[in-house]
Amino acid sequence: MMGDVFTQYWYPIITAFHQGKSALPAHLGISADDYYQITELVGLVPIATHDLPQYAALQLRHELIGMRDDELSELTELLTEHLDHHQPYAQQMATVLANASMGSQHLWRDLGMPERPRLSQLFHDYFPTLHALNHHNMRWKRFLYKQLCESGGDYVCRSPSCETCTSYEECFGEER
Ligand code: SF4
Questions:
Q1: More confident residue, 56 or 151
Q2: Best CA proximity match to 11, nearest among 111, 144, 78
Q3: How far apart are the C-alpha atoms of 160 and 147, rounded to whole Å?
Q4: What is the pLDDT of residue 153?
Q5: In the chain, how long is the greatest CA-to-CA distance?
Q6: Nearest Cα to 30, choosing from 12, 43, 45, 49?
Q7: CB 9 within 8 A of CB 92
Q8: 109 CA to middle of ligand 1, Å?
Q9: What is the model's pLDDT at position 175?
Q10: Which InterPro entries does the record cross-reference, listed alphabetically (predicted)?
Q11: How many structural domains does the chain have?
Q12: What is the mean pLDDT of residues 64-71?
């Protein structure tokens, strides 16, 4: 199973979630059935939400994400547009990633990836056109919000060009 999307992505996402090390809400933001199914598929034991170490934080996260419902829908829509539907649990991955994007750290951390290159690889496999669009290697979360911004939202850019923008480091700096 080495090298497949379950080992590469789903396993670390779920492991980090179980350890309270990601910004994902209950059941990773997908349905309870899907969470149980995928968790068993990768060889892990599903954990009931109230038994997770971050239970209290999860309740708070649920409320916070609830207040940003439109943003979550826009992110999910954007990711779905670029999704390779041939990948296993493709729509669920779009939903998980949209939820992780609502966190406050770098996306690879909020998703629970072991390091940033793994997240870039995930984009390559699940969202190939987004991966290709980010040829300037912007920070992933900023990149997603910039896409929303360009399609009429008002999330990121306060400057007409990246070269003159005071947020340059926030968008293109190294994601450590
Ligand atoms: S550097 Fe400034 S203009 Fe460029 S994407 Fe970031 S916020 Fe937008």
A1: 56
A2: 111
A3: 15
A4: 72
A5: 50
A6: 49
A7: no
A8: 22
A9: 84
A10: NifQ
A11: 1
A12: 90
Residue where the block lists tokens 């990836």: 113
Atom of ligand 1 nearest to the CA of 149: 8
pLDDT value, residue 3:
56
Average pLDDT, the chain: 92
pLDDT grade for 114, boundaries at 50, 70 and 90? very high
From 149, 162, 169, the mutation candidate for ligand 1 (largest count of ligand atoms within 8 A of CB) is 162
| Residue closest to 88 by CA, chosen among 46, 140, 37 | 37
The whole-number average pLDDT for the span 99-125 is 96
pLDDT of residue 42: 97
* Residue ranges in the chain assigned as alpha helix (H): 5, 11-18, 32-41, 55-67, 69-81, 90-101, 107-111, 116-126, 128-133, 140-150, 168-172
Q: Which residues of 106-123 are buried (b: 16+ CB within 10 A; e: fewer)?
A: bbbbbbbbeebeebbebb
Domain that holds residue 33: 5-172
Cβ burial 67-85 (10 Å sphere, 16+ → b, else e): eeeebbebbbebbbebbee
18-33 average pLDDT score: 96
Tell me the pLDDT tens digit for each residue of 69-88.
999 999 999 999 999 999 99
